[in-house]
From TrEMBL:
Protein name in the entry: Transcription initiation factor IIB
Organism of origin: Halorubrum glutamatedens
GO biological process assignments: DNA-templated transcription initiation
HAMAP family: TF2B_arch
Binding-site list for Zn(2+): 39, 42, 57, 60
Origin superkingdom: Archaea
Keywords tagged on the record: Metal-binding, Repeat, Transcription, Transcription regulation, Zinc, Zinc-finger
Gene3D superfamilies listed in its UniProt record: 1.10.472.170, Cyclin-like (1.10.472.10)
Ranges of biased composition (kind: Polar residues): 92-107
């Protein structure tokens, strides 16, 4: 009997300690909640000002917390439809893909999520899924046309080393040409090349017609004819190419120092002030300026090397660099 009473006493004491600890925990949580939701000065209710990022007391106006981080979206929505339209998930959209990158693509690796190889039956099933997925991505002839053209633009831009902003601009130009029905009677490759050529000049990263002809599937005459047609019909504002925009690329290919580039720019500015650049090829002027600047800097560069880099004849370089030197002498005299 004595042992039974001792055990019951110990059990009751343990229960009392557990209840006391629970009450202490509840009191701690209540005190923490009171510190968060009540003002430390007047125990008033705190409100959050999301516009200014502050937590203030609505009774006395005390600023309890400031510079809080808003972890929500930067847009507002007033109904579920607007919220769904503004929600963003995944990679950003791009004009360089015919569906703007919104569709899915099934990978070519025949492996599951654990890296294990698929069986022959599963591989056949995945191949069928890839085929149907590719068919669903291009639902009509217009999307197939756009997919082929954007692939052609990406191929040529990669071969010419053009940046993404030129590719985006070319994709927008081609989409406009397709929407305004400018393609009948012209090849997809021709319009795509013309769009990329116009985009490179608009962005300020031009390439010569010979460079485009080398990587395009159309000849030079078709390219120039299609380019004039696209620019005229779409009303594109394309400024004449500036010879100075070709200089950094030529200097880099010839592995020349920055001094040569600076002198070449000065020669071109002098020629522009003298008015001898109008009506002349900007590529020829840039190549001649680089050759003349290399001579002035005592750099060993031959006309054939510059001709190969710029893809122009040596005769053009000989004629133009003398004119540039004469224009520079006139300004310094």
């Amino acid at each position: 009997m004595t042992e039974t009473r001792i055990r019951s006493y110990e059990r009751d004491e343990a229960v009392d300690r557990a209840g006391a600890s629970e009450r202490t925990g509840e009191e701690t949580e209540e005190s923490e909640n009171s510190r968060v939701t009540s003002c430390p000065e007047c125990t008033g209710r705190l409100v959050t000002d999301t516009e200014h990022g502050e937590t203030v007391c609505e009774d006395c106006g005390l600023v309890v917390e400031e510079d809080s981080v808003d972890r929500g979206p930067e847009w507002r929505a007033f109904d579920s439809a607007e919220r769904d339209s503004k929600s963003r998930v995944g990679a950003p959209t791009t004009n360089m893909m015919h569906d703007k990158g919104l569709s899915t693509n099934i990978g070519w690796q025949d492996r599951d999520g654990y890296g294990k190889s698929l069986s022959s039956r599963q591989r056949q099933q995945m191949q069928r899924l890839r085929t149907w997925n590719e068919r669903f991505r291009t639902r009509n002839s217009k999307e197939r046309n756009l997919k082929q053209a954007l692939g052609e633009i990406d191929r040529m831009a990669s071969a010419l080393g053009l940046p993404d902003n030129v590719r985006e601009t070319a994709s927008v130009i081609y989409r406009r040409a397709l929407s305004e029905n400018l393609l009948p009677g012209r090849s997809i490759e021709g319009v795509a090349t013309a769009a990329l050529y116009a985009a490179a000049r608009q962005v300020g990263n031009p390439r010569s017609l010979d460079e485009f002809t080398a990587v395009s599937r159309v000849d030079k005459m078709e390219l120039t004819r299609t380019y004039r047609y696209v620019v005229r019909e779409l009303g594109l504002e394309v400024q004449p190419a500036d010879p100075e925009s070709y200089v950094p690329r030529f200097v880099s290919r010839l592995d020349l120092p920055d001094e040569v580039e600076r002198l070449a720019r000065e020669l071109l500015k002098s020629a522009k002030d003298e008015g001898i650049t109008s009506g002349k090829s900007p590529v020829g002027l840039a190549a001649s300026a680089v050759y003349a600047a290399a001579l002035l800097s005592n750099r060993k560069v031959t006309q054939s090397q510059v001709s190969e880099v710029a893809d122009i004849s040596e005769v053009t370089i000989r004629n133009r660099y003398k004119e540039l030197l004469e224009a520079s002498d006139h300004l310094t005299a």
